[in-house]
Amino acid sequence: MIYLDNAATTKMSQTAIKAMIPYMDCIYGNPSSLHSAGQKANEALTDARERIARLLGCEAKEITFTSGGSEADNQAIVSAARIGERSGKKHIVSTAFEHHAVLHTLNKLEKEGFEVTLLDVGENGIVLPEQVADAIREDTCLVTVMFANNEIGTIQPIEEIGQVCRGKGVLFHTDAVQAAGHLRIDAKAQNIDMLSLSAHKFHGPKGIGVLYARKGIRLTNIIEGGAQERGKRAGTENIPAIMAMTAALEEACLHMDENSAKLTALRDKLIAGLSKIPHSVLNGDAEKRLPGNVSFCFEGIEGESLLLLLDDKGICASSGSACTSGSLDPSHVLLAIGRVHDIAHGSLRLTLSEENTEKEVDYTISAVKDVVEYLRSISPIWRDLVSGKKEFIIK
Ligand SMILES: *Cc1c(COP(=O)(O)O)cnc(C)c1O
């Protein structure tokens, strides 16, 4: 099996697996318990919080452990909305291609009377700091822009956007789920007020994540109950997962440069190979993209069939985001970069990890070529395109 769906989730690293075992086996206390078993677990929790803070360039007390990226996004946005609301500020700036954890939270706030401006991301899939500056109003309480997009991999000018927000006194949140462990993150230096990450996107376990919130920002509880996480997130901490996430993030950050070089080489080889398929187009900027992300649209085919046939050839790929597969709507991300419905339906996302090899990339290029050719040979739309009855959109 060739696994090329690392933006959906990654395989846990051996380091991460080893880091969690002692906390399921021997050190199983509840960190809120006063006895020694509890205190041992609590020491581990404190240690993990400090190590995560060091990796993100912030302080331990600014770290809240959550159940993952979705919860962190929800809590960040709702908290900023509640802070804004107290001074009559009910306008939020975001982008059209955010993850649904962000977009659906914004929809919910709109129903409460908040106003949301979604910025255009252009054909290259990058938001400009000037667009953010122009969109901020007197009543803006939050700007939320993702660090890197999960479908097309484009990297946003986060530090500059943060600077714009800082200058205008507006809170800035970034969904850094795709960036963490892959790109350098330094919350303070990059002017970030709030940030979300999720362990299973960097070889950690599923169901655990982090919300960083700069000190002074009052978080609103999404989960009510006990006083864990300074009273801001109830529920007994998932110590095994927290320890595994910490180890996974340390490992990813330690090897970031070499991993990035390796992935970039594989990515560019894959992009060069797939670009040779006629009437194909790369989605998103060719350079300002995650080292492991390849996203294409092929005219005259249907993405779902492409995925099934690739799976038959042993390749695990995705059409876009795992969260939208199963629905017939084309990806909101591809529509946001200006792909029309017919083209957006013919999408393919291949996302690499350090474990992939050049040989796998070669095999994948030839498999995709064969499958696209086959699907076109049986497609009535393709027949119309070739006969000139319909005009090609991708030249
Ligand atoms: C995966 C992902 C999420 C959701 O994270 P979970 O831990 O799966 O809830 C949010 N945002 C982005 C950009 C993602 O890629």
- According to CATH, what is the topology of the largest domain? Aspartate Aminotransferase, domain 2
Figure out the total of helices: 14
What is the correct CATH architecture of the largest domain? 3-Layer(aba) Sandwich
CATH class of the largest domain: Alpha Beta
Features:
single chain, 13% strand, 2 domains, binds pyridoxal-5'-phosphate, 14 helices, Aspartate Aminotransferase, domain 2, 41% helix, alpha/beta, three-stranded antiparallel beta sheet, 395 residues, Aspartate Aminotransferase, domain 1
Descriptive account of the structure:
- The chain is an alpha/beta fold.
- It folds into 2 domains: 14-254, Aspartate Aminotransferase, domain 2 (3-Layer(aba) Sandwich); 256-387, Aspartate Aminotransferase, domain 1, CATH 3.90.1150.10.
- The chain has 14 helices and 12 strands.
- The protein has helices spanning 14-20, 22-25, 36-56, 69-86, 100-111, 129-135, 158-168, 239-254, 256-275, 303-312, 332-336, 341-344, 358-377, 380-387, and strands at residues 2-3, 63-66, 91-95, 115-119, 140-144, 171-175, 194-198, 209-213, 280-282, 293-298, 315-316, 347-351.
- It has a 7-stranded mixed beta sheet with strand order 2-8-7-6-5-3-4, with helices on both faces. Strands 9-10-12 form a 3-stranded antiparallel beta sheet.
- Bound molecules: pyridoxal-5'-phosphate (PLP).
